[in-house]
Write a structure and sequence with these properties.
By secondary structure, the chain is of the alpha/beta class. The protein is 40% helix and 16% strand. It starts with a helix and ends in a 6-residue tail after the last helix. It binds calcium ion. The site of calcium ion has 7 residues, from helix 2.
Length: 334
């Protein structure tokens, strides 16, 4: 009963967090047009981030670009999730395929035939990014949550896209490393492809806000909040948890703990970039340029182009509550 009561409270919270369109039918809040660039199919947090985008009424998801993976495998995961969400209107673009062997969500798409997907799957992710940015009559928000060779190639092919896009990304480590360690680490998205991260973090975007490990590395749902997500009957959230259950045994640290998936999420790094596309209310910010080293460090450099870094939480608890409420809410409209 307590759980039911809490579900009702969370749904109420989600409703209150939504734009006030019901009260103001003549002037609905404009939605934020978003391009997602994701290395989905490796760490499971990208799947959480995509579901979060699909659950966010503020967002108008215009394009999903797969990056830094086997783009066919990645497109299958995105396609199946969009189909479950009833959002096959959102085009998928295949990024530059990398020779990567990580296919830890493969079981989930093993019998899924991408050729039968009713939506559009564009073969050239670089072109799709350039075309979407240059054709837009308003600034788009680029949610970038993985190593980004496809994005870097798009910037090289058409540098003017930077002037059309706002960046909300998950990159680097400023003061805090993995697991809250009080010194910076080479963060995966940067370390995997430092040249691409350097291109991304120094491009002249309209606006750039990034969650480094300092904030995103601390997000993990546990206890009652996680229990609500784990037990949700919502088709999209069920697909998310199904993916998580299949993914966990493919990661040694998760596989060795038989209670892990039953009791908590993994670290949900990428969900914070999705949040930053909509709001900065729950974080504290620092503005600095960074130098990206070959080892994948992001070192403050006042001479570099400034980026806004979400280096602290005003309320991590508030974020985790918001995230839970969002995932428990019905999927956003088209
Ligand atoms: Ca990612």
């Amino acid at each position: 009963m307590r759980t039911l009561f809490r579900s009702v409270l969370l749904l109420l919270a989600a409703a209150l967090a939504a734009p006030a369109t019901a009260a103001e039918p003549r002037s609905p809040a404009p939605r934020i047009p978003v391009i997602l660039d994701t290395d989905i199919g490796d760490d499971i947090d990208d799947t959480w981030a995509l579901v979060l985008l699909l659950k966010s009424p503020e967002v108008d998801l215009r394009l999903v670009v797969t990056d830094y993976g086997d783009s066919g495998y990645q497109a299958q995961i995105v396609a199946r999730l969009l189909q479950i969400a009833g959002r096959t209107d959102i085009p998928i673009a295949r990024g530059l395929s990398q020779a990567r062997t990580d296919r830890s969500q493969e079981e989930w798409i093993r019998s899924y035939d991408l050729a039968k997907y009713p939506g559009r799957v564009l073969p050239d992710g670089v072109r799709a990014i350039v075309d979407a940015a240059m054709a837009a009559s308003e600034p788009l928000t680029l949610v970038a949550i993985g190593p980004c060779p496809t994005l870097a190639a798009a910037l090289e092919r058409e540098p003017r896209i930077a002037g059309k896009l706002r960046l909300a990304g998950m990159y680097g480590s400023i003061h805090v490393g993995y697991g809250g360690k009080p010194s910076a680490d080479p963060e995966w998205n940067v370390k995997a492809n430092p040249a691409a991260a350097r291109a991304l973090l120094t491009a002249p975007w309209l606006d750039a806000v990034v969650t480094p490990l300092d904030t995103c590395g601390l997000v993990q749902l546990k206890g009652e909040r996680y229990g609500l997500i784990r037990d949700s009957q919502d088709p999209l959230v069920r697909a998310l948890i199904e993916n998580y259950r299949l993914w966990c045994p493919r990661k040694d640290w998760c596989a060795k703990d038989s209670e892990y998936v039953a009791s908590k999420s993994s670290t949900l790094f990428d969900t914070v970039a999705v949040y930053l596309a909509m709001s900065r209310d729950l974080v504290t910010l620092e503005t600095t340029g960074v130098r990206v080293t070959e080892e994948g460090m992001t070192v403050a450099d006042p001479a570099a182009r400034p980026v806004v870094w979400a280096t602290g939480w005003k309320s991590l608890d508030g974020f985790e509550e918001w995230l839970t409420a969002r995932l428990m809410a019905p999927a956003a409209r088209r």
